[in-house]
Specification:
The complex is a heterodimer.
Chain A (H helix, E strand, L loop, with lengths): L8 E7 L3 H9 L7 E7 L5 E5 L2 E5 L1 H5 L1 E4 L5
Antiparallel strand pairs in A: 1-2, 1-5, 2-3, 3-4
Chain B lengths: L1 E7 L5 H9 L4 E4 L6 E9 L2 E7 L11 H13 L3 E7 L3 H13 L4 E6 L1 H6 L6 H8 L3 E3 L8 H13 L13 H15 L2 H6 L2 H9 L3 H6 L6 H8 L1
Parallel strand pairs in B: 1-4, 1-5, 5-6, 6-7
Antiparallel strand pairs in B: 2-3, 3-4
Helix pairs in contact in B: 7-9, 7-11
Chain lengths: 74, 233
Amino acid sequence: MAFLSEGEEGNILEVRGGKGVVQKLSDLGLTPSTKIKVIKSNPPGPMLVEVRKARIALGRGFTMKIMMANGEGL
Amino acid sequence: MTTIALIGNPNVGKTELFNRLTGLKQHVGNWPGVTVEKKTGKYTNGGEVIDVVDLPGTYSLTAQAKDELIARNYLILDRPDVVINIVDGTKLERNLYLTLLLLEMEANVVMALNRWDLVKEKHIEVDTNKLSQSLGIPIIPTVATTGEGLEELKKAVMKAVQTKENRQKNGLTYGEDVEQAITGIETSIKKDWNLSKNYPSRWLAIKVLENDTQALDLIKDSPQKREIMGARG
């Protein structure tokens, strides 16, 4: 997810991390196959994403752990 | 005396509603041992004084984050008579996760479906009757900024206090495999009278299954510990 640019959308493939990371992100609604949209991205700073109609800010570290299945055929 | 707690995701209008309910009679303090603000206030309804506690805004109720743990400890240990779950009506899907966690704790939940004006403005259709039925809790549309729905909310709270004992349990299940594991652990937990008296047994069973640090700590001294851990597999 960290490499998406502003305005890009995609679906989450998986969250790669320990139990704590996976728990925290799923609490925020970031679960596999959830659609997200990048609202703002300020590398190497945090990202603002829209998920389930809510906007949340994520630290870069978190976004690196979220693998995206991006669009066509993937 | 009746105590109610307010809980909800951050930025749903929780504090606004709190201020609306309590007027200026609130008191800001600290939760013991940590620097998260604790706000309490009161209001009277039909001659009865209702104490209101504003819990930290949270998305979840894990034992990992300080604010979540405070909210969770308060709900589990202090057992307020009613928990008002404030929900942003325009972000239902996201907000309902916390609602389910509250129901899992067997809290006596009344939902304030806030930002109702925005819900209508954005032409979002929410079938409150159906939602109320499937969750088994009363749902009151509110607009915290104008005070709309506040009287109805107070009425619903009073009613929830009176009907606390025969409140229906929610029937949320997690599929056969998980349910089997939960039931196994729950059966063992119920054999420890001390545990099942103090905590909702199904909630505790789920937390043990999740390897939740606090839940594991709770069963640490239980005579049933071996059996509970055995059932956990």
